[in-house]
Amino acid sequence: MNENQENQSWGGKREGAGRPLGSVKRPQIVDYITAEEVDKLTNKAYTMAEQGNETMLKFILEQVYGRAKQALEMSGEGGLPFQIIITRDEHQGS
After folding, report:
1. pLDDT at position 20 over 90
2. 50 Cα distance to chain centroid
3. pTM (2 decimals)?
4. How many whole angstroms separate alpha carbon 82 and alpha carbon 23?
């Protein structure tokens, strides 16, 4: 162990560590446009969805109900379950 490793304090509260105050809130479009412009955009999006624009319809549904959960399926060769094999290299010691 070198001198740097011996002097390091692991874990616990440290001054200056962590997320900066106020960084939790991400900028949103409503921070930059007026309420009237929000209404115009909302009406336009709704009209486009009603006219069959599938991308806009999907966008509106995601805004109202949230995104659908994405299924993730993984399998090995031929659809079989993965096989994990762990071996120990005898030449590297214990």
Report:
1. no
2. 30
3. 0.43
4. 40
